[in-house]
Amino acid sequence: MPLPTRSSTTVPRILANVLWPLAIMTVIHRVLIRAVNGAITNDFATVYAATRRFLAGEPVYSENLLTVQPHYLYAPSGTLLLSPFGVIDNYTISRWLFILINTAAIIAALWLLMRMFDLDVKSFAAPAILLAAFSTEAVTNTLVFTNINGVIFLCQAAFLYLLHTRRLWWAGAAIGLSLAVKPMLAPLLVLPLIRKQWQPFVGALVIPAAAMAAGWALTVDAARYLDTTMPYMGQVRDYYNSSIAGLGVYYGVPEPLILVTRILVVAATLLAVWLLLDYRHNNEVLWLATTTGVVLAGVFLVSTLGQMYYSMMLIPLMLTVVLKGSLVRTWPAWLAAYAFFFPDNWESVRWPYYGRVMEFAHPTLGWLLILATILVVLLWRRAAPGRHERIAPAATSA
Question: Where do the TM regions start and end (predicted)?
């Protein structure tokens, strides 16, 4: 059957007609069915309880941290910013509002990334990206577990977009807001540091500091956050932890081997960041998104806690596939994406041991593989005589 001609329906129009219903129904299913149904893991329950105690002037950090249930680990600054959800007397309504805000944040983040990557939001790319994102484990479980990471993802996308468009003060405000809630994106400050842009650091420091000061003054047991909660976050837990240390502790790997592996990952991450400097002048979007992905993948691997749904922050990296000079146009990169994005369960009745190993290890293996793939491609391009996308310093300013 021949493809449609220009006088009839075009291929892009056909793709849009196919993808929009799939994308819309997937979003509706993830929000109204999966997220509203919830799961055993419920990150919002601790947030709601803590903010209610905060507003009532009761101790916030009074949980038993020895249990395996989700714990409230936000700093007083995060408690202050999340406290409006505790104002709502009805837990269900508050949780649904939280889900809707995170859903809207994820969609807004994808829209910003499309603008950053110069993709037409009226094309079939929009439903394709929306469908792909909401099909991932990262987005699905962020909503199902009712986690704040959707808002953090929006802060990340806004930070990158605003850096790219040279709205540096606003870029600092975007990442500062995220840091006031949780420190996940702090390593991304390496981007303005490399470009010697000081403006983003103002918002990145002032907003969390102001929120912390206010939250500290209003939290009756704020000191307990430093004495109890922070030491707990520095420990490596052996459940629901896909970091190298978490996986190693679970399987009884000797601590020296875990330490050596973490050091190697840090070295690989730093080397990749250094090699990526070649791209910062003539392909800024590629540099921003790829460096972001490399840094965060390295952090997920070497931190004390790495969870699969953190991989939502790697969406900008994988979107670079549409850019000239992309480092993820290889099959190992998308094998890695399968490992850290797809929600497939690898538990096996026929091979229980190996299935269980794959089920626990596939996010870790995915992060390792994407980091290794990008590093190998960078080294290959640098070593090749006619290496692809080798860049002479441009005259543009940082």
Answer: 14-33, 96-114, 144-163, 170-194, 200-220, 257-279, 285-305, 360-380
